UniProtKB/TrEMBL annotation:
Keywords associated with the record: Cell shape, Cell wall biogenesis/degradation, Peptidoglycan synthesis, Transferase
Positions of the catalytic residues: 332, 351
Molecular function in Gene Ontology: carboxypeptidase activity; transferase activity
Originating organism: Spongiibacter nanhainus
Gene Ontology biological process terms, A to Z: cell wall organization; peptidoglycan biosynthetic process; regulation of cell shape
Pathway: Cell wall biogenesis; peptidoglycan biosynthesis
Protein name, as recorded: L,D-transpeptidase family protein
Pfam family membership, one: YkuD
Superkingdom assignment: Bacteria
Limits of the L,D-TPase catalytic domain: 200-391
Length: 441
């Protein structure tokens, strides 16, 4: 039953009041903070959820005869949450009408091909892209259809090559129920968030490779980012940025030095000096790398610190943005800027690499006569490590959304679940007791 819906229709008197009260408090709690405890799904979660005395809130709603309105107010009020709710209703209607026919499996569909599967592809894309019109032979994979496929691929964070291979076909063939499930998962994630993310704050959507700077209700800028590889996933958490470092030294984490750098030094010892690395012993003294026999050391026996001096080869680039946390994860520049041209951008060891980081520096520092653009450029040109403490801490939220609200057209995009995290949330939602499985309004 959905929040005692059937039982309430049959009950009366005191029993009906008890059921109604229980249903209200359960639904109110789910709207306010989600159906699941986020830490049970994402152990690194640190954002403080919304809280309220719901018993007192119910009394107030009854006194003002505004029970329905009180529930509506408890749901997240962000426009993007509402966009996802509206999409949920659309796909539920599509499911009730029988959904759509999947495109049959077969060889790659490439531009110029002639096949009945092309007709199915065309029909599927017409349902998604209202601008697509049939021209000429509907069985031919013509240039108009190629453009529509590329648009679909771009919106799904797939390589926009215009070829319908296994990944693109799987995305096209997601059923209404599949999409409903994805929306349920992401709506739940929205309900885990605090009421106030911060007047001035940063949001990183790991799955969409985007960073947004927010001030009030406005998005000031969007930066492409590179996130952690699937085996070194960027964690989900919130913290406060308190300072940034220009021309940073890179103090290499011990695990990364042992697992990644040591094998590289063993293959080519010359890169220690050519890439600006320093090797320090347990006393903190710099060791001459030319006197070291790298093959004497192993991942389990490497008693050195490794750090990299500022410069064009530094792994952190020209700046790192620090929001102290137990994961040792932060935002930073990168010398590997070619990675931003790729569609899928999970290449880091967990930290987040930011495109156009100096623009982000200016936004973070804000209007400050002591840090004009010229001053900033001069400090960066000096190569000297410089710490800039912020006068106002900036909340940073590392989030994971696989359904993305497209603000330009009030629509949504379904992007790849790069870390395979959706299924955990969905399974947990589906295991809830019957009176908790109904989707929230």
């Amino acid at each position: 039953m959905e929040y005692h819906q059937q039982a309430l229709l049959q009950a009366s008197g005191a029993k009906r009041d008890i059921l109604a009260t229980d249903a209200y408090l359960a639904l109110a709690g789910h709207l306010l903070g989600g159906k699941l405890n986020p830490i049970s799904i994402e152990p690194t979660w640190t954002a403080k959820g919304r809280e309220r005395d719901l018993v007192a809130y119910l009394h107030q709603a009854l006194e003002s005869d505004a029970v329905v309105e009180s529930l509506t107010t408890l749901a997240p009020q962000q426009p993007r949450y509402q966009t996802l709710l509206e999409a949920l209703e659309r796909y539920r209607r599509a499911l009730s009408l029988g959904g759509w026919e999947p495109i049959a499996a077969g060889p790659l569909l490439k531009p110029g091909m002639h096949s009945e599967r092309v007709t199915a592809l065309r029909n599927r894309l017409k349902a998604i892209d209202g601008s697509l019109q049939a021209e000429g032979d509907e069985h031919r994979y013509d240039s108009v259809l190629v453009s529509a496929v590329k648009r679909f691929q771009q919106r799904a964070n797939l390589e926009p090559d215009g070829i319908v291979g296994p990944d693109t076909l799987a995305k096209l063939n997601l059923s209404p129920q599949d999409l409903i499930d994805k929306l349920r998962v992401n709506l739940e994630r929205w309900r885990w968030l605090p009421e106030d993310l911060g007047r001035k704050h940063i949001r990183v959507n790991i799955a969409n490779y985007h960073l947004e700077t927010h001030e009030g209700k406005d998005i000031r800028a969007v930066h492409d980012v590179v996130v952690g590889r699937t085996y070194r996933q960027t964690p989900i958490f919130s913290a406060s940025m308190s300072y940034l470092v220009l021309n940073p030294w890179w103090e290499t984490p011990s695990k990364l030095a042992r697992k990644d750098l040591l094998p590289k030094f063993q293959r080519d010892p010359s890169i220690v000096q050519s890439l600006g690395y320093q090797i320090l012993d347990t006393q903190g003294k710099v060791v001459d790398p030319s006197n070291m026999n790298w093959n004497e050391y192993t991942e389990s026996r490497f008693p050195f610190r490794v750090r990299q001096q500022p410069g064009p080869m530094n792994a952190l680039g020209q700046v790192k943005f620090m929001f102290p946390n137990s994961h040792d994860v932060y935002l930073h520049d990168t010398p590997s800027r070619d990675l931003f041209s790729k569609t899928r951008r999970d290449f880091s060891s967990g930290c987040i690499r930011v495109r156009n980081p100096i623009d982000l520096v200016e936004w973070v520092i804000g209007p400050n006569p002591q840090w004009s653009r010229d001053k900033l450029e001069n400090v960066l040109s000096s190569g000297k490590e410089t710490t800039v403490k912020l006068t106002e801490k900036i909340p940073v939220h590392l989030l994971y959304w696989t359904v993305v609200a497209d603000d330009d057209n009030d629509d949504i995009r379904f992007v790849a679940d790069i870390y395979q995290r959706d299924q955990r949330v969905l399974l947990a939602l589906n295991k809830l007791p019957d009176n908790k499985t109904a989707e929230l309004p």
